Amino acid sequence: MNSARIELRARAIDKEIETTKHHQLALKVLESGRSEALSTLHSGVDLVAHLPLEISSEIFLLCLPERPGVKPTFSPLLFLQICRSWRDIALSTPSLWSRIYCGRLAGVAADNLHLWLSRAKTLPLTITISLPEDAPADIPTVLKKHAPQTKNLSVEVHSAAHAKAILTSFPILEVLELKLTYPWRGSAELSKVCRDIIRAAPRLLKCRIVNLPERGDISSIYPTQIPCPCLRELELSDGKLLLQLTLPALESLSVRNLNLPHADLQDFLSRSKPPLRSLRFEVSHNISVKSLRLVPSLTTLTLVFNNYSAESLDVLSLLVADAEFLPNLREIIIRNWHHPRHDYDLLARVLEARSQLRSLRVFLPDPAQANYTPTKECVATLQSLSKQRPETHVVLGYDDYNYLSPES
After folding, report:
1. Residue 77, strand partner residues
2. How many CA atoms lie less than 13 Å away from 26 in the CB half-sphere?
3. φ/ψ of residue 311, rounded to 5
4. Phi first, then psi: what are they for 267, rounded to 5°?
5. Count of alpha carbons within 13 Å of 362, Cβ hemisphere only?
6. What mean pLDDT is reported for the chain?
7. Mean per-residue pLDDT for 229-239?
8. Does the pLDDT at position 340 exceed 70?
9. pLDDT tens digits for range 279-299
10. Are 236 and 254 in contact, with CB atoms under 8 Å apart?
């Protein structure tokens, strides 16, 4: 008796389930019809939907944020959710999908990344992405798949495995930024990966590598230098990678930690013979004057002092004494001027000796360190020279304060 009742109840439930499924199906049909009706209604009043595709696409492009991300509440993904006509416009505009920004907090699935980049069709790609240690293993695979189209690439890598995984040929890559996150093991291997990525991009114009380990010298393991015939701008956190490069087109070089014997720096410059116009590096001890003589084309010199060293002033003294030393120099920028007050006179002598200078900017360390405050006499001298040379911009102080014009 109980079994019969249970069986009867089960049949009744099955019938209710079938009825519910039918209702759900009917609901989906109604929702689809409602969506189509609204889309038709919107398309009738939506001016964008009636514009030529070239114009509506341009309007959509103007709505893109500076860093198009993967959040559905921002364009271009937002365009897909408005109505069918907007979705069609967005999917018919490859340039909407040629840039993507996936920061550290914006995780993205490999399938979605591939779908986004595929919508760009054959356009060159600009990709900014962070690869944490727990990033899906197939993300680098997607990056490699689209490498032939990648023109600008910025990657933050947190593991050596991911750094090696993206290594492939980048035939049209022009701008590369690698952010390497500590801690690293096997720094020589990591330096080799950076070296090989540069080698894989023969059209590279601009390269920035951050947090390259200081112990990553691989010159004894891989003695052959890599020619980079197009590279114009290079920014490194450590200078030892220069041992592996030949850069005949280099115009701008910035090295946080030069960390090279003078002979090696001279060898790099002699080998490359670059038309260098801008040079920036940190100064721990003395500066290789012989190296600087190899780049007479230099117009901008930026020195970042780590500590006080009388030898570090050799370059400034030579600018006063030798008119043939860096004859094209137009701009001098000095940061963390760690020198006693009596060395401030040298700045005035540089300004007097170099009439072609158009900018001399000297920034001091922490203002709380009174030992670096310029004397009134020094300030007066530089003010007088500055008035005589109105075409030359002179700064002595901090980013937000100039002793020579305190009122500004």
Report:
1. none
2. 6
3. -65, -25
4. -65, -40
5. 23
6. 83
7. 91
8. no
9. 998 876 667 888 999 999 999
10. yes
Is the separation of the CB atoms in 200 and 167 below 8 Å? yes
Phi, psi (degrees; rounded to nearest 5) at 45 = -110, -10
pLDDT of residue 259: 74
Angle at 85 between CA 83 and CA 87, to 5 degrees: 70
Kindly tell me if the per-residue pLDDT of 45 is higher than 90.
Answer: no
Tokens of 150: 């990648």
Selected residue with higher pLDDT from 403 and 1: 403
Spatial distance between the Cα atoms of 278 and 331, rounded to a whole number of angstroms: 9
Report which residue type is found at 383.
Answer: Q
Give the pLDDT band of residue 221 (cuts 50, 70, 90). very low
Tell me the angle at which helices 84-91 and 53-62 cross, rounded to the nearest 10 degrees: 90
Task: Enter the tokens of residue 376.
Answer: 């009134």
From residue 153, alpha-carbon distances to 70, 94, 278, 314 in Å are 17, 18, 23, 39
Per residue in 237-258, pLDDT (tens digit) is 888 888 889 999 999 999 988 7
Which 3 state secondary structure label does DSSP give 150? strand
Other Cβ atoms less than 10 A from the Cβ of 158: the count is: 20
CA distance 230 to 399: 34
10 Å Cβ neighbour count for 308?
A: 14
Q: Please tell me the distance from the alpha carbon of residue 176 to that of residue 170, in angstroms, as a whole number.
A: 10
DSSP 225: P
Look at residues 168, 173, 236, 237 and name the one whose alpha carbon lies nearest to residue 205: 173
Amino acid at 26: A
CA distance 370 to 400: 17
Question: Strand, coil or helix: what is 389?
Answer: coil
Whether 341 has a pLDDT exceeding 70, the answer reads no
Write out the two tokens for 328: 């094209």
